[in-house]
Input
Amino acid sequence: MATLSDWVEGARLRTLPAALAPVILGTFAAHALGSASIPRALLAAGVALALQIGVNFANDYSDGVRGTDDVRTGPARLTGGGKTAPRNVKIAAFASFGIAGVLGLVLVALTGQWWLLALGVLAVLAAWFYTGGARPYGYMGLGEVFVFVFFGLMATAGTTYTQAGTTSLATWLGAIGIGLIACAILMINNIRDIPTDTEAGKKTLAVRLGDARARRAFELMILVPIVLGALAVPTVWALGVLLLLPLAWLLVRPVRKGAVGLELIPVLRNTGFYELVFALLLGGLLLA
Output
């Protein structure tokens, strides 16, 4: 029987900073446009966190029942590790999606922009079919597309829009940066799992690119956002984005040196915090 600790591990708390980052940046961008709302920001954060946890449980369930997680270098999963019945993990995933849906409905009602519900439905469907269904697109190397669109563009610009009723060029540049770093989190996770994913037939983008090119892609996903952040701040304060360079190097260095397996887990965790720092720093600079 799974313990509380097992369920907490299954929720993959290390990924949650990446869920909060776009909401933080989107709220700063809304403030820069003269209209920020703490209640709406909190609702957006709740949606993002619930959706992220739902994705994590959905991946645990789908990969587990397919046997993809039978052998892995990271912590044992709830389903693949036999810690609880697959049905329980599936219920946890849909319960999380349900919470995201309720909070999203309240947020949409406050904005009066009911067309946003369609985007919410698409986000939940994309979250489930990433590894779920008969032809999961995550097994075809398209996982980064989902992450970039929903945890980058939509989460950041959507947060700004639900508060300010509009967006800005800075919002979109920041959203692209957030999306790339979110993709870096997925990429480094999949670089770690290239051997087991290849054996299981899971053709992630990292598997398709191969180890060397996947590592270069990770570097670009970490470094390009710094350039985008500088472009988003049309003042001398743009130089403040360079403060990210030492943090970026701490992430890139072990990947360049060929870290594998368990050596990549700190990189995975720290990439999430890098995204959070990017959001806080860029958001602050937008108000400078």
About this structure: The domain at 7-287 is CATH 1.10.600 (Farnesyl Diphosphate Synthase). The chain has one domain: 7-287. The mean pLDDT is 93.
